[in-house]
Structure formats: C-alpha cells, structure tokens
Amino acid sequence: MNIKNLISAIVFLISGVLSAQEELTSYLETAANNNPGLKARFSEYMASLELVPQVGTLPDPQLAFGYFIQPVETRNGPQRFRISLTQMFPWFGTLNAREDVAVSKAKAKYESFEDFKSNLFFEVKATYYDLYFIKKGIDITLENIRILNSFKNLALIKIESGKASGVDELRIEMELADMENELALLNDKWSVATVKFNNLLHVEDKSQVVIPDSLWLDDLPYSRQQVLDSLRTNNHQVVKFDHLLESYRESERAARKAGLPSMSIGIDYIAIGKTDNTMIDQGDNGRDAILFPKIGITIPLYRKKYTAMVNEAIHMQDATLGNKEEKVNSLEVLFERTYYEYIDGQRRINLYNKQKVYAQKAISILETEYATNGKNFEEILRMEKRLLSYSLELEKAYSDKQASIAFIKYLMGE
Fold it and tell me: From CA 299, how far away is CA 93, in angstroms rounded?
C-alpha cells in the first residue's frame, strides 16, 4: 500500500469513528429530551423553586369586622360597627432565613436531577457499547460459520480422495451446530438490549439502532488523582449533600429567629351614628373614629419548642456530614473498582490483539499441512475456535474499556 492509499484509509477510519461518536451524542440528546424519569426529576426541581416565594412572604393581613348589637354611646354618637386591619411582621431576617433554606433545598433537588441525567447518559453509553459487542459477536460468528463451511467443502474433497476420514465432516457439523446455537443466542441478546436502549431514549421499541463497524479507542483523559479530586468536589451526589448541609445551617438560623418576638401593626375604623344629644358640638355629631396606630408584640415564652427546632437543625447537620463522608468513601471504592476494569480492558486489548495474530498464523500453517497431507484437521478446528474466542474477547475488551471511561466520568460529575 502506497502512502497515498494509507492516508486515505486513515482518514476514512477517523471519519467513521467521528460519525459514530456523533450518532451516540444524538442518542444522548434524545434521551435527555424524552426520558420520563429525567422529566420527573426536573419537575420536582421546578416544584421546589415554587417553595421560595411561599416561605419568604409576610403572613396574610388580618381583616376583622365587628357589629355592635347594643351600640356604645360616645361623645360623638353611638358606635355602629368596627373594622380592624392588622399585619404581622416576624423578627428581622426571619423571612430571608426561610428563603435561604428553600433555595438550598431547591439546589439539592437540582443536583438530584443532574445526577439522574449523568447516570442516564452512562446507561445509554453502556447499553450502546453492549449493542456494539453483540453486533460484532454476530458478525464474527457469521464469518466463522462461513469459514467452517469452506472447511467442510475442503474436507469433503479430501474424504472423496481418500486422504481424510469421514469423521472430519462430522466434526465440522458439530462445530456448525454450536455456531448456529451461539448465533441464535446473540440475536436474542440483541433484541433484549435494543428494547432496553430504546426505553432509555423513550422511543419505539422497534426503532433501529445504528452501531459503528469499529469502536473508538479513547483513553481516560485524566490522571487517577484528578479523577479522585473531581469525585470529591464535583460528583452530583456529593454536591447534593453540600446543599443539604447549607439548608440545615439556614434552618438553624431560621429556628433561632423564630424564637424572637414578632410584631404587628394595625388600624381600627369605627363607624359612629348620629345622636339627638344637643349638648355636643354638631360638627362632631356622627363623625367616624380612626384609631392609628395599633401595635402588638408576640412574646415566645415557651422556649422548649424553639430550642428543639435549633437542636434538630444541628443534629441534621451532623447527620448530613456523616452521610456525605460515607458517600465519598463508597464512590472512591466504586472508582477503584472501575479504574481497575479500565486498566484491565487496555491490558486485554493488547493481549488479544497479539493472540489473534498468533492464531491466524497457526491456522495458515495448519491449513497448508491439511491441504497437503490431510493431517491435523482437528487441530485446525480447535485453533479456529480459539481465534473466534480471541476475536470476541477483543471486542468485549473494547466495549468494557469505553464503558469504564463512561462510568468514571459519571463519578466525576461530568
């Protein structure tokens, strides 16, 4: 192959890989737009935002009306009815503290939404890689069936010429039966995985899934320490605990302010009727009375309730810190396990690439010997089975490596 053809082949391969990655990105966008679970998490977040104006607003003013069945005589005349309007005001900063609690809890809900989305994207990627492996397994099995059929024809020629035993044909028939059974099993797995993939995207179960001929060979673009640092600070489950901790701190502040006095300001309007008393000034006869201001104060005397509210918030802070540390520890264990799988995937890729080359060379030598003297046919079949196994294991290693990278990125909060 000259240099021009080599460059063309490389460009074609790269363009195919980029196209496949764009296809996966398109599937991720579809999942983000359609998945009902993700929509539910977003609705929960939007509902939590609606709590902010509820807790940050003054109590509704109180309007009272009173009618005097027996009018009370005053200097200006008899009192007919009274209208009273009162507004309660909590202690300074109480409403802001309650708002801060609601805002922090809404942020925690948002992190739950982001975590669900990140996990959804990982599930889509992992299922996509499973579909790739199943597809390659079907392709490799079909190719192996084709090769076995060519061996069968060669064996029949040798048998007719008396250079081989009829057992060779039976051996091939047995191998073909195994391959047909494996092919049926792979087709069943493809159907199940396709349904799972389309359900994640929330599209029709029978929607076609486009799978690339070859999987990209991306490596993890971060060091081990970078992943751990990001996991501890950016993982959505960890950040959620940070917002919950802040909400309980604000709850403590709101509880302390709830134990302080609240004030009320009001106005009274009293309607006065006219009187027949000629001793009063006729200019004041029947004049309505407006009393302003009316000031009140609520004294929180029963302190146990407010002390319990403060202590509850403090205990919840301690619990949240403990839960956060436990979550970080469990995520680190998950990362170590996944990082090992990532390294193991690369190691298996290197191994099975070499094993495939060795097996292909061995089969070539064995085929030449069989064509010459009809010997080692059983060894050809054994080596062909090993080549099939190496090919499948290589594709599984490609799939596992990319799935490990996807899960590590999920743990990092990407």
Answer: 17
Q: Please say whether the beta carbons of 123 and 200 come within 8 A.
A: yes
**Radius of gyration for the chain, computed over Cα atoms and rounded to the nearest angstrom:** 39
Question: Helices (DSSP H) in 161-260: which residue ranges?
Answer: 167-201, 224-234, 236-258
Question: What span, in angstroms and rounded, lies between the C-alpha atoms of 289 and 20?
Answer: 83
> How far apart, in Å, do the first and last CA atoms of the chain sit?
42
CATH 1.20.1600.10: does it fit domain 3-34+96-260+303-412?
A: yes
Strands 289-298 and 262-272, by their bridges, are: antiparallel
Instruction: Give CA separation, 202 vs 27, 188, 191, 206, 377, in Å.
Output: 11, 21, 16, 11, 51
Q: Tens digit of pLDDT for each residue in 368-412?
A: 877 777 677 778 888 888 999 999 999 999 999 999 999 999 999
pLDDT digits over 288-311, tens only? 566 667 888 888 888 899 999 999
Q: Which of 109, 130, 120, 111 is nearest to 202 (CA)?
A: 120
- The torsion of the CA quartet 101, 105, 111, 113, rounded to 10 degrees, works out to -150
What is the value of pTM for the model shown?
0.83
Alpha-carbon distance of 388 to 390, in angstroms, equals 5
Strands (DSSP E) found in 68-123? 79-89
